Amino acid sequence: MAPLLEAERVNVSFGGLRAVVDVSLEVRAGTCTAVIGPNGAGKTTLINAISGITPMTSGTIRIQGKVPSRWSLSRAARAGVTRTFQGTRLFNSMTVIEHVATASLNTGTAVDPRAILERLALTHRQNDTPSELPFGEARRLGVALALATDPRTLLLDEPGVGLTGQDLLLLTRCIKEFAADGKGVVLVDHNMRFVMDIADEVIVMEGGAVIAKGLPVEVRSNPAVLKAYLGGSPHA
Amino acid sequence: MKPAIDLRAGLVFDAFGLGLPVRIATAVVAAVTVYAAAQGTSMSTLGTINAVCLWACVALSVNLVIGICGQMNLANTAFMGFGAYAGVLSTGFWHWPAWITLTVAALVAGVAAWMLSAAIFRSKGLVFAVLTTAISLVAYSVMVNWSSVTGGLGGISTGGPLEDGGLPGALDLALVKINEPMEYLVLLLTMTAALSVGTSILLRRKTGRSWLAVREDEVLAASLGIDVPREKRRAFVAASMLGTSIGLVYAHMVAFITPDSFTFAHAAFAPLVMIMIGGSGTAVGPIIGASIVIGVPEALRAYELEGLGTLIYGCLLLFVVLVAPTGVAGGLQSLARRAVAHRRAGPAQPSTQGEPAAAEAKTPTV
Amino acid sequence: MDGLLQQIANGAVLASAYILVAVGLYLIFSVLDIPNFAHGEMFTVGAFTQYALVVQLGVPFWPSLAAAAATAAALGVLLERTVFLRLRAKQANLVAFLIAGLAVGIILQELLRSVFGTDALAVPAPIEGLVTLGPVRMSMYRIVVIAVSLVSVAALGWLVYRSTFGTRLRALALNRDLAALSGINVSGVGTGAFAIGSGLAGLAGGLLSATSSLTPYIGFHPTLVSFVILIMVGAGARLATVLAGGVVMALVESLTAGYIGNSMREAAVFVLLIVFLVWRPHGLTRGADAQPARL
Question: What Cα–Cα distance (Å) separates residue B33 from each residue in B15, B29, B39, B48, B186?
Fold first, then answer.
């Protein structure tokens, strides 16, 4: 079976700056791929390119074996590739359930907003607006939005930032359940414990290029990776 | 077509559970009340009521792009002016029935708006606002300078060439011919009610929800599969076609138009003010706004305080923007929403970060 | 050719006005990120202050001019504190700024109207006489206006690019948070920028009060022209580019008035903007981090 998503030799340059250099990755059903690396490594730019919001200078994206004719953020979402954003990005005037209901309107399949809210333990917040949500729940709403579009591939940009304890556990469980359902996840994050716990494959980027790829245990002891992270990661 | 949630029950997109029959009934009752109240009033009062209804319609149509879709479109002057001048020329000079002109003009406006949107929506925010302002100002200049067609600053009348001294032409809508102010009142009340109810329906359906999402954060909206450029274009085309049609009705109602009816201040800025004061993105806000913006100066005029009216207008505007940006309707909605939420939620729900997720999941759903 | 040169000469005074007003707006916008839609009203206030002092109170022209600029600057600071900073603190969107600016404009226009009426007023020029430069003839005063404007802009250029205060201004324009962190008095510098920007507009108003007739409504068009210039030169432009923009707009207007018709002069700038934006939807100079987001 073709991978859910393939990115082949993606290059993204801004003027003279090469932000992503020849990066390839594959997302297979039921797996979670983590992309890690020091700040400025190009991880978010890679996600931007794959999710369609930033044009690639060169490279190919394939969705279940087929190359889409045109690629943009909304086309990607309609093709089953949904991403989340760094930071908390929500619709300030809508309630929680309105958020999820709006997100579910553009999918091709039936999605029950209430079920999504339950999965992310947000049911008790359904009539609240983002300004009334504590940090952890606001972040969860961002994930709920993405799930409400019923994607086959989820691209998560630093979903764990600032989350601890139960919030982080809930997120972990959610991602694992999603992947186990025959879907794919690409995860960018800095929390190493969180990443190593979830990921089936880890890709390490530095300076725009991939410097290591493999199982979490392999990557963790890779000398090139350790060198890139000289000084240690705060969560290692 | 399969929303899994029952949109018509309004449980999700309507905090107050006001079904469509309720809304239609409210609109009808309101319209009938105004009609009844207008019986036996003076000509000038009737004129004011008609003006309020007409500008309420303008505000409701502009609300689609600015209030709901969130795009600072100030090009209304061009479309409203086009409809008006087309209407006057057709009724007064070419002797077409108005309903034909209406159809043709609306279609032309729709096509023009469609083509324009490809170009103008590449600009965002401030640039887009100034660009559409520029369109309005150029349209005004055309109205003033193309005097062979528009009569220039001297204006033109639905009664034909001014020298001939003809009577104002009727608004010929095939089924009815509208001539008297009372007849215009019926027409305008119908239009206002229809646009208001229509907006309320739109706000509960996919298109309206998508537009609201685009207004709030177009990148986030796109990430949810919303085709942002397409939605902006649709809102713009809809508003432009409506604006043209309303302009045509306006021209017949006042019978004599000059470019001064279509200055930036009157036809682009004032509707924006109405939306802002009344409550942008709501179905009744524009009506409230039009009532205030048109009604208050008229009331002051009756007391010979016209200049004061402008000053009050400016101060009110500043006040709304600084203190109550959601306008009258928006403020009422928040109050009502909070009251409803309290009633539904029962005792307050505790939830702080760090509390066991399991406990949160077991909290009774509301 | 002579006719063309004369048209250009006629436009030179207008250019001076547009340059001063546009540079003022540019300063406010780039340093404070506030789109001040009441900016043109500072021009009007400057003009009417000049009128009140010179014609009604008999104060000599040049001191009045200084007072006019100062009044506009003070009014600008007042607006900044009461209206614009409040909006910025609320993270208000563009609509709010637009409406607030135009509302302030309406209030100011109405106040001026109630004091001075709607009849067109004029201020007598302080210098008489015509000057002939080759095929072109201009009044002495107009030449002085151009000179004063150029000197003012040069002084501003020195201030922005060579003084300590200017360094702080530019720091604030580049990155507000970073500027605050490095100890710059963000609030003070910001107000200073607003004062200078408004003062420049007021200076333009005072200068031009003696070359054209005054009504309370003369400020809106300069506001729009300034925004057109701002949009066309784009974010991150240099002062000189804004200056060039002012010259271009004045030329477009003068040539339109001279060759096509006076009634079209104001629309000409907007036609230019529309054409320009079809070619360059985001302005001339794009910021380094501006990426087209494919939605």
Answer: 27, 6, 10, 16, 12
Q: Sort out which chain A residues have CB atoms less than 8 A from B217's CB and list them.
A: 89-91
Contact C264 B145 (CB under 8 A): yes
- In the residue annotation, A158 being an active-site residue is answered as yes
What is the pTM for the complete model shown? 0.90
A23's enclosing H/E stretch is strand A17-27
Total of domains in chain B: 1
Q: Looking at the domain assignment, is residue B24 inside a domain?
A: no
Tokens representing B135?
A: 């369109």
A216-225, B190-199, C248-257, range with the lowest pLDDT? A216-225
For residue C101, the one-letter residue type is: G
Q: What is the pLDDT of residues A22-75, one digit of tens each?
A: 999 999 999 999 999 988 889 999 999 999 999 999 999 999 989 999 999 999
pLDDT of residue B221: 96
pLDDT digits (tens, 9 = 90+) for B244-298: 999 999 999 998 999 999 999 999 999 999 999 999 889 999 999 999 999 888 8
Catalytic residue among A158, A201, A206, A218: A158
Contact check, Cβ <8 Å, B226/A121? no
Report ipTM (2 d.p.).
0.92
What residues contact B192, with CB distance under 8 A and at least 6 apart? B31, B53, B56, B57, B60, B287
* Structural domain harbouring B238: 50-359
d(CA B132, CA B138): 10
| Domain ranges (residues) in chain C | 2-217
- Residues of chain A numbered 83-102 and touching chain B (CB < 8 Å): 83-85, 89-95, 97-98, 101-102
Using CB atoms, pick whichever of A74, A83, A89 lies closest to residue B228: A74
On whether residue B72 sits in a domain, the answer given is yes
C-beta separation of C20 from C204 below 8 A: yes
C-beta of residue A176 within 8 angstroms of C-beta of residue A198 = yes
DSSP string, B87-137: HHIIIIII---HHHHHHHHHHHHHHHHHHHHHHHTTS-HHHHHHHHHHHHH
> Does residue B338 form part of some domain?
yes
Residue of B123, B137, B221 with shortest CB distance to C267: B137
Interface test with C, best of A13, A20, A54 (most C CBs within 10 A): A54
Which residues does chain B have within 8 Å of residue A89's beta carbon, measured at their own beta carbons?
217, 219-220
Residue B261 domain flag: yes
Q: Above 80 in pLDDT, residue B95?
A: yes
Question: pLDDT tier at B353 (50, 70, 90 boundaries)?
Answer: very low
